[in-house]
From TrEMBL:
This is Ankyrin repeat and SOCS box protein 2b isoform X1. Residues 33-94 form the SOCS box domain. PROSITE patterns: SOCS. InterPro entries: SOCS_box (IPR001496), SOCS_box-like_dom_sf (IPR036036). SMART domains: SOCS_box. Pathway: Protein modification; protein ubiquitination. GO terms for biological process: intracellular signal transduction.
Amino acid sequence: FCEWLSTPVMCKWAGPIIDLLLEHVGHVQLCSKLTELLDSREEWITIKRKSLSPRPLVHLCRLRIRTQMGRHRLKSLTSLPLPDRVIRYLSLAD
């Protein structure tokens, strides 16, 4: 993954791809190549910060709930008796 994302063709997409990865996992240890790529662009500083610090508890809870529900039951998320805001957050809309 690091080698592929570090190639000249893909490096311009490194920030958005890493950001997407961080939204769907609890913790990621980035290799030095990816850290250097994030350092190379000013607009990716928030992505780098996100990768360095422990993820917020609310994010970890969202991931755990989604894992417990399973892929097939996520489709029925809107039928749960939860506030709309929570449903949007769990469905990755927020």
